[in-house]
Amino acid sequence: MSGSRTPVGEDRRAIDAVATRDAIPMIVAVLPFGFVVGVAMTQSGMPTWIAWLTSPLIFAGASQMVVITLAATSTVWGVIVAGLVVNLRHVMYAAALARPMQTQPTWFRWLAPYFLVDQMFALVTLRLSQYPSASALRRYYLVGSVFFLLSWIAVTTLGMVVGPVIPESWRFEFAVPLLFVGMVLVAVDKLPQAVAAVVGGAVGLATAGMSDRLGILVGALAGVVAGAAAETVFGERPLRASIPGSHA
């Protein structure tokens, strides 16, 4: 180490600052959705305290919303399967991070998947080259993840507190699909993602009348299959580049 007490990139305060700075815009972007999830908890078929526990236990916004929404109308197994299907993409996230995780201690390899939300996957992927050592990457991951988790719990709790006093005339039930549409429009930048979104949405709409809200599950499965097929055929082709006449 040539006498250096702190390896390059491993200054703890610097790592903490970078992780927090990176996490803030990601958290701000999901605050409206987190608030709506909290409001939905007060309207769920679950007891309020159980609904609240979905924030720290599930810690996955889309899956959490599915579980809360289906709680009053579907079977237990239907809720569990739908929640798992919505989070299938996390299997791909785990596979993408398998190599840097090989050098991490066992306790962290067990803990890390719990925090592997979309935002943390994106941030860690971008910072892999900056933090090549296991300890530096681990600290960045944990600081960003804990900050994100606490913020998510806080905003969903706020939604639960404010939810009961929101007038019904505000029609908050429309906020959920609108927020999902907004998230898709922002996130989709590759052709396979667009194919998955369109097919999943179309199939989900076509099967909306199925019992136990199974249309959500069928639509999600169709989107996953369609996206995988599109990736096999087209690869990671940028969406704009694939549109005729696009000059992006």
Folded structure, characterized:
By secondary structure, the protein is an all-alpha fold. It folds into two domains: 12-186, no CATH class; 188-243, no CATH class. Helix content is 69%, strand content 0%. It is built from twelve helices and no strands. The protein has helices at 12-42, 48-58, 61-70, 76-86, 89-96, 98-101, 106-111, 118-127, 134-162, 175-187, 191-206, 214-234. The chain is globular, with a radius of gyration of 20 Å. The model is unreliable at 1-9 and 241-248 (pLDDT under 50).
Short description:
With 248 residues, the chain is mainly alpha-helical.
Secondary-structure blueprint of this entry?
Blueprint: H1 12-42, H2 48-58, H3 61-70, H4 76-86, H5 89-96, H6 98-101, H7 106-111, H8 118-127, H9 134-162, H10 175-187, H11 191-206, H12 214-234
Helix pairs in contact: 1-3, 1-9, 1-10, 2-3, 3-4, 4-12, 11-12
Number of helices: 12
Relative helix content: 55-70%
For the termini, the CA-CA separation is 46 Å
Mean pLDDT across every amino acid position? 76
What structural class do the secondary elements suggest? Answer: mainly alpha
Given as residue ranges, the uncertain stretches (5+ residues, pLDDT < 50) are 1-9, 241-248
Write down the secondary-structure element order: HHHHHHHHHHHH
Strand content: under 5%
Largest sheet: none
Q: How many E strands?
A: 0
Task: Give the tally of structural domains.
Answer: 2
Shape label: globular
Radius of gyration from the alpha-carbon trace, in angstroms: 20 Å
